[in-house]
Fold this sequence. Notes:
Helix content: 40-55%
Shape: globular
Structural class: alpha/beta
Mean pLDDT: 96
Bound molecules: glutamic acid
Strand content: 15-25%
Strand order of the largest sheet: 9-8-7-6-10-11-12
Largest sheet: 7 strands, mixed
Radius of gyration: 21 Å
Low-confidence stretches: none
Amino acid sequence: MADILQNALTQIDQAIPILEPQYPNREIFQRIIKKLKTVNNLIEGEIEITLDNGKKQKFAAYRSQHNDARGPYKGGLRFHPQVCATEVKALSIWMTWKCAITNLPYGGGKGGIAVDPKTLSQEELQRLARAYVRFLSKNIGPWQDVPAPDVNTNAQIMSWMVDEMIKIKKEEGNLNQNYLATFTGKPLNLGGSQGRDEATGLGGCYVLRSFAKAKQMQPNETKIAVQGFGNVGSWFARHAAKMGFKVVALCDSKTAIYNFEGLDVEKVAAGKKEYGSLAALVEKKIINAQILPATTDLLYLPVDILVPAALENVITAENAAQIKAPIIFEMANGPTTPEAEEILQKNKVLVIPDVLANAGGVSTSYFEWVQNLQGYYWSKTEVLSKLEPLMESSFTDVWQMYTANKNISVRQAAYIIAMKKVIDVMIARGE
Ligand code: GLU
């Protein structure tokens, strides 16, 4: 994971030549850039839980708070063996840009625990979630830092976490804030928002639809391959198919399947829930598809749009040249390394960046936080009627910046917009 932070920093560097001339005071600009290339705060330590067998086990826990010039830190928590300080730092930097692009009044944060949650029982997982909140309670809160789900975390984990936070605040005799708003991505019966579950995938599809329109692509002639079938990948594939796009390939962590005539994504989603794996659906002939020899083969299929929707560093200098899709649509955070992007650019592959494409999740988190703070809840129609124009206008802003400048990538266009918003606020605040 050492290079992922470097990736985030390189991406900042790539926007500087276009931003710098806009700031006549070089000293202030340089000072702010230096600040943006470090995180404000890294909270790291070990948390300990008692396992079901009575033994104690320690886990490394982290929260990175990158920048809060535009508002409280915001970003997910992941439970994954790869979680480390460099990873959360990079991911928190990306959150700052994501919130700025979509105009959410937040800065960027990200955290997690180095753990494979599949090795824990539900009780152990609950103890771990609660221990994490005890470890972090001084540093989070509705106006301070608002975590949410990320890789391998979900509404249940947010429930335990928010419950623990409220318990801690009760112990401190300090319930003068609605601490429900400390976490987003909660279940509906505990202050969650309608639509949050599917929001990252659906938000991505709103961007996809606007992009297809701008490029004059016909959805029913646009073949899409989606890598990853977790919360993000599965909802993205389902909504893309609903919007008329031809989803031809999907994969989970073990199996990649394809059918160039188009896959019945609803059937795949329902089947995966019932049988647990994509392979079983093909073997039992529940869906009409072929299995690829390896999951990575999905990346090299001759499709129109490749959608990495799992983890970072999937498209690298080693495999970028083999990619046949002319468009990469990043639903994962950080799936393409800068070295890979250079190769893709040479090969005229267009990359729609993560900070735009997957911002629907945090946008709906913002709606959840607003609902918590005002104690007034919206219908799903209301939530989606706010998400749709937000994602569309975020796309339009980035696309206009991209088309108005020669020789920049869509990522650079997104970074110019995001970084400018953050820099301007920092200057306004007297940085
Ligand atoms: N984990 C999601 C992301 O990377 C959502 C973050 C949030 O809702 O705060 O964007």
